[in-house]
Write a structure and sequence with these properties.
Layout: H1 18-41, H2 60-149, H3 154-172, E1 177-178, E2 187-188, H4 190-199, H5 209-212, E3 217-219, E4 229-232, E5 240-246, E6 249-255, E7 259-264, E8 272-275
Parallel strand pairs: 1-2
Antiparallel strand pairs: 3-8, 4-5, 4-8, 5-6, 6-7
Helix pairs in contact: 2-3, 3-4
Length: about 280
């Protein structure tokens, strides 16, 4: 026996509460009950595991190869589609450019042909004017010669000389502009030109075409002489006048587009004529 056994402990014994003791008893009972139930539920004898289940093999390399091939096929299909779209867009662009060039060339040719046609028309007009002026010169010379040859008839000589002055004045105005109401010297309307021309022969005609159409003796258009005043419309209400210059032609201030020109009477037959010389 230890020499310290007879010495009482100075430590006070711990007082355990009734609730703590009850809690511990409950926990212990629960654990023991669980062990008992588990043991009762377990089979009396268990056979050892003698076989294993074989898991299906998974060919990783084959799967990856399939995915790669599918991806490559998809990429190739996409590339082909893009190439096809690019080819279609390129073809459409070329077709549009070709159409534009064709249209531009057609327009250029049409404009060139139009310009050439205008040039030919202008040349023909100049040639026609030159021929008409030559004809007028011949007619004037003939009229002057006839007047000189008929010196025994003073009135006839005076008339022929007056006609020459009228025709010479009219020829000098060819190419002038037509302006309604104008009275010269570089622009005229139809009646002002006729009035100015006959003033060269000391004949004072009315200003407007209506009055000029009744200013002299009415003569038929089938028996015209150089210097006769032609009119279009009824006598007394004519809307246009000109002067007959021979060879089926007349000279007038036609319109704003033509101006003062020599024209063929067959293209625009007059309604009537008056003779003042």
């Amino acid at each position: 026996m230890s020499h310290t056994a007879h010495i009482p402990s100075h430590r006070k014994p711990r007082q355990r509460s009734a609730s703590a003791l009850a809690l511990r008893a409950g926990v212990a009972g629960g654990v023991l009950s669980t062990i008992a139930v588990a043991g009762a539920a377990a089979p009396a004898s268990a056979d050892p595991v003698t076989e294993t289940v074989e898991m299906p093999a998974f060919d990783v390399a084959s799967s990856i190869s399939h995915v790669v091939q599918q991806s490559a096929a998809n990429s190739q299909q996409t590339a082909l589609e893009q190439e096809l779209r690019l080819a279609e867009d390129t073809a459409a662009t070329k077709a549009s450019e070709t159409a534009k060039k064709t249209k531009a060339e057609a327009v250029r040719k049409a404009e060139a042909e139009k310009a050439e046609a205008k040039k030919r028309a202008a040349e023909q007009e100049r040639a026609s004017r030159a021929a008409e002026r030559t004809s007028l010169s011949g007619a004037t010379t003939t009229a002057g010669s006839s007047a000189s040859a008929s010196s025994s008839n003073s009135s006839s000589t005076a008339a022929s000389g007056s006609v020459g002055k009228v025709i010479a004045f009219l020829k000098a105005q060819v190419g002038d502009a037509y302006v309604m109401g104008a009275t010269g010297p570089n622009s005229w309307d139809c009646s002002s030109l006729v009035q100015a021309a006959f003033r060269q022969a000391n004949i004072d005609l009315p200003r407007v075409s209506q009055d000029q159409s009744t200013a002299g003796r009415q003569v038929g258009t089938s028996n015209l002489k150089v210097g006769d005043i032609l009119y279009w419309g009824a006598a007394g209400s004519a809307y246009h006048t000109g002067v007959y210059i021979g060879d089926g032609k007349y000279l007038d201030a036609a319109n704003p587009r033509k101006g003062v020109v020599i024209q063929d009477l067959s293209g625009y037959p007059a309604t009537g004529a008056v003779r003042v010389l």
